[in-house]
Amino acid sequence: MTTTAAPQRHPDPERLAAAQAVLDDLPSAWARSTFTVHDPATEEMIAAVPDASVEQALDAVAQADEAGRQWAGSPLRARADVLRSWYERLLESGEELALLITHEMGKPLAEARAEVAYGADFVRWYSEEAVRPHGDSRDLPAGGAQLLTRRSPVGLSVLITPWNFPLAMATRKIAPALAAGCPVIIKPAALTPLTTILAVELARQAGVPEGLVKVVTTSSASAFSEAVLRDPRVRKVSFTGSTSVGSALMRLAADNVLRSSMELGGNAPLLVFDDADLDRAVNGAFAAKMRNGGQSCIAANRMFVQDGIADAFLEGLTEKMSALVVGNGLNDGIGMGPLIDDRAVATMSRLVADATARGAIVETGGVEFDGAGHFFAPTVLSNVPNDAEVAQTEIFGPIAAVQRFRDEDEALALANATELGLAGYVFTESLDRALNVADRLETGIVGINQGVPSNAAAPFGGIKQSGLGREGSAEGLEEYQNIRFYNIARRATR
Ligand code: NAD
Predict the structure, then answer these.
(1) Over 70: is that where the pLDDT of 29 sits?
(2) Which GO terms describe its biological process (predicted)?
């Protein structure tokens, strides 16, 4: 077994000062009470943000509803221009955003910068999509009338986002909502509200009208959703987070028959066939597993490797995982930051203990690091039995759990034996096999010979219990549009 060096906890002093300067410049909102935000690498408090009451949340609904009336009737080009300007500001303030992401969420600065590029890209995409045709004309087969289809904004949209991609999960929802003509209330995760506050401030500076995008920070998520989703002015809820919270929100949304988009949990299978290119498979699996320290909904959760390539794959993956430098993401050269909280670290330890008790072998890692910060070593488990908890639940952390398979049918049966269906990965040099396996994988997203499939141009989303609806691409805009038709009687002219 190889071991990982102890984490570098202490941040680079210059970077820390820069991150604190960004915080000092955030718009300070008056608040009767506040809750605190902590750096997961040091556990030190970094900010106190307003803890909105239900009354304040409903006041935000009123303001957004008011601002939304004008926006719904605004020219498409005006919406596009504001979004473009917001995109440019996100890039101009890219370093500040990246510092905040790392400071409140923990991912290494290089990954935070990549999130800024990815998150801003949704704003650029929807600035371009906003002016695309919003309707069409169709002929009735029997004649005598013509159909005109129109798209109207769905209305006031409540957006609820998780902590793992605090910028991208927000822009992926706000940008299409604004392009479609909707006002929004956004509630970021209480663990990571600061990036959203800064991103929305940049939207305001870019010309988004006052009140149109309201950030509500609160430590009482359920009181917020109970009140806001029952408000008759609200027409839509878009949620990214766990399947259990998503299904509870769908029950709540049912009362007012709210349009609902749900981006929920994943349990991604990653299949490596004997005919895969070994380097591609190792690098792809590493990327699919370790983006954000494994705290990604499309993270490779279960790795199934064919017998003939399994030893070489394990060796390559173990080498890469054990070489990762763990530490405070504000420092240079860090490959993996802390996990989000203590609970996540305890979950990793429990999963490793359960798997090893059932016969799994720790190839590297498997240990927590004592002291401040929520650090867990990058871990590879081999010989994982399929009934181990790590092979059944969403890990959401830096454990690669590797199982072996004999043939395609066995691999697919294992891969599809889950109620979740967000992403899957296939590594093979055979085009036929890649496409056949992708077709049989029960997931909304398939990475073929690569580990990072997301893109603003792609219709991101899951099937089965991984969710409803799509984000990104043209389909992402439809989530915020009502499709209507006018049936226009036509007199025959000839
Ligand atoms: P979570 O479900 O605990 O929280 C997500 C958000 O919901 C947070 O803002 C939280 O405050 C809020 N929330 C919690 N209970 C609520 C309630 N009763 N009413 C209203 N809001 C409530 O998830 P998390 O731990 O922040 O994120 C991890 C989960 O998110 C994982 O399961 C992951 O797979 C999933 N995820 C999915 C996607 C996707 O696109 N499918 C993307 C990122 C994360």
Answers:
(1) no
(2) gamma-aminobutyric acid catabolic process
